[in-house]
Amino acid sequence: AATTFNLSPASNVQFVSGGAAGSSVVITSVTVPIDTYYTTFWVKGVSAGTGSSSISNANYVTSTNTVTVSP
């Protein structure tokens, strides 16, 4: 089955679905299709600062990383 992961961004970033500025849509989750090992999304800096962002699913270990956006 496909697996959905929840995205929890720091206040200074957004998770977005498209890499190009004009086609980016803010997202709160991503789904990895069946028989696939990855999906693609981007992290967009919206203000300077440092914070923790995480990606989670109840069946996997949560990944938490520090994100720093420089002015």
Characteristics:
71 residues; flat; four-stranded antiparallel β-sheet; mainly beta
Shape: flat
First and last CA, distance: 41 Å
Strand order within the widest beta sheet: 3-1-5-6
Percent helix:
under 10%
Count of DSSP helices?
0
- Low-pLDDT regions: none
Q: How is the main sheet built?
A: 4 strands, antiparallel
Mean pLDDT: 93
Strand content: over 45%
- Helix/strand-derived category reads mainly beta
Write the layout of secondary structure elements.
Elements: E1 3-8, E2 13-16, E3 29-32, E4 42-45, E5 49-56, E6 63-69
Antiparallel strand pairs: 1-3, 1-5, 2-4, 5-6
What would you say this structure looks like, in words?
The structure is a single chain. With 71 residues, this protein is mainly beta. Helix content is 0%, strand content 46%. The chain has strands spanning 3-8, 13-16, 29-32, 42-45, 49-56, 63-69. β5 and β6 (63-69) form a beta hairpin. It starts with a strand and ends with a strand.
Summarize the structure.
The chain has strands at residues 3-8, 13-16, 29-32, 42-45, 49-56, 63-69. It is mainly β and 71 residues long. The mean pLDDT is 93.
